[in-house]
Amino acid sequence: MTLTDADWFSEDAATFGDRLAGAREASGLTQKDLANKLGVKPSVISNWENDIKEPRANRLQMMSGILGVSLTWLLTGEGDGPDAPIDDVPVSADLVELMSELRLLRAQILQSGEKLGQLEKRLRAAVKDQL
C-alpha cells in the first residue's frame, strides 16, 4: 500500500500508538522528553506507543498540544496530524525546545480552561443550594 501525505497515518494504516510515536518523533522528542513534559514515566509512553495501555483524557489533551496535532487525529487518524516525512531538514535544538514549550503552554491553557469551567459549574451549584 502506498501512502500519500493525506493518509500516511490513516486509521487503516496506524494504531493510536503508531500515531503517538510518529507525532512524538516529528516533534523531535524522545520518549523520555515527552514523559517529562506529561509528568509520567518513560515506560508509560512506551506502553502507550506499543498499544499496551491507553492514556486518560487529560493526558491525551496535553499530548495533542505538546505534539501539535489534533486530539481527533491522535485517536482516529483523521484531522490535523504531522506532515508526512520528507527529506530530513535539520532543525536546531533551540527551535525544537521552543516549539515544545509553546505546545505545552497551549495544552496547559486548554486544561486550565476546562478546570475553570468545572469550577464555575460547582460555584453555580453552590450558589443555587444557598438560595
Layout: helices, strands, pairs:
Blueprint: H1 16-26, H2 31-38, H3 42-49, H4 57-67, H5 71-76, H6 93-130
Helix pairs in contact: 2-3, 4-6
How would you summarize what this structure contains?
This protein is an all-alpha fold and about 130 residues long.
β-strand percent reads under 5%
Number of helices: 6
Termini separation comes to 64 Å
Overall, the morphology is elongated
Task: Please bin the fraction of helical residues.
Answer: 55-70%
* Structural class by SSE content: mainly alpha
Q: Report the C-alpha radius of gyration, rounded.
A: 17 Å
Main sheet, how many strands, which sense, barrel?
A: none
pLDDT < 50 stretches: 1-11
Strand segment count: 0
Order of helices and strands: HHHHHH
Characterization of the model:
With 131 residues, this protein is mainly alpha-helical. It is 63% helix and 0% strand. α2 crosses α3 and α4 runs antiparallel to α6. The protein is elongated. It starts with 15 loop residues before the first helix and ends with a helix. The N terminus is likely disordered.
For this entry, give a set of tags.
131 residues; 6 helices; disordered N terminus
